[in-house]
Amino acid sequence: MPRARDTDPVIREARLDDVEGVVTLHHLTRETCMPYLPVLHTVAEGIEYFTEVVFRECRVLVVEDDGRIVSYCAFREGWLDHLYVSPDAQRRGLGSTLLKAATESQDTLSLWVFQKNLGARHFYERHGFSPIELTDGQTNEEHEPDALYRWQRST
After folding, report:
1. Which residue in 31, 60, 85, 139 has the fewest CB atoms around it within 10 Å?
2. Rounded mean pLDDT of 24-32?
3. How many other CB atoms sit within 10 Å of the CB of residue 34?
4. E strands of 10-107, at which residues?
């Protein structure tokens, strides 16, 4: 039985003290939703990377529900680098809300998604993204076939 929430989820700018919650969510979602991916980094390594790279180079938004980060996205000019929703918070519109926030300030937005991640591919296609390139995965860290998607604002 789903638990009652004390408050509605809140979308906000991430703060540096959110990095551990973001990375924990990132790892949990990959393990649960993409079990075919190798685990290449520890949570501690992820915290260092997100602190030094992602939080410096990207705008990071989080969705907080009852004090817990349940979704986040990281984007920069022309690129959506990350969009993850906790497995127990999926299908509630949180990913769509974050994606809308990312596209509002962009004319075009590109992203990479693993070819096997059919749920994510369908999600992006429903939101107007089109696949423009498929790769064999040899150039990504996981060596997993991926797909480049692009969205462009309608004129």
Report:
1. 139
2. 96
3. 15
4. 10-13, 59-65, 68-76, 79-85
Q: List the structure tokens of 154.
A: 């309608």
Q: Is the dihedral of CA 99, 104, 105, 111 positive or negative?
A: positive
Q: Which residues have a Cβ under 8 Å from the Cβ of 98 and sit 6 or more positions away? A: 11, 61, 63, 71, 72, 73, 83
User: What length is written for the chain?
Assistant: 155
pTM for the model stands at 0.91
| Rounded distance between C-alpha atoms, residue 35 and residue 52, angstroms | 27
Sign for the pseudo-dihedral over CA of 26, 48, 109, 10: positive
Q: Which domains does the chain have, with CATH numbers?
A: 10-152 (3.40.630.30)
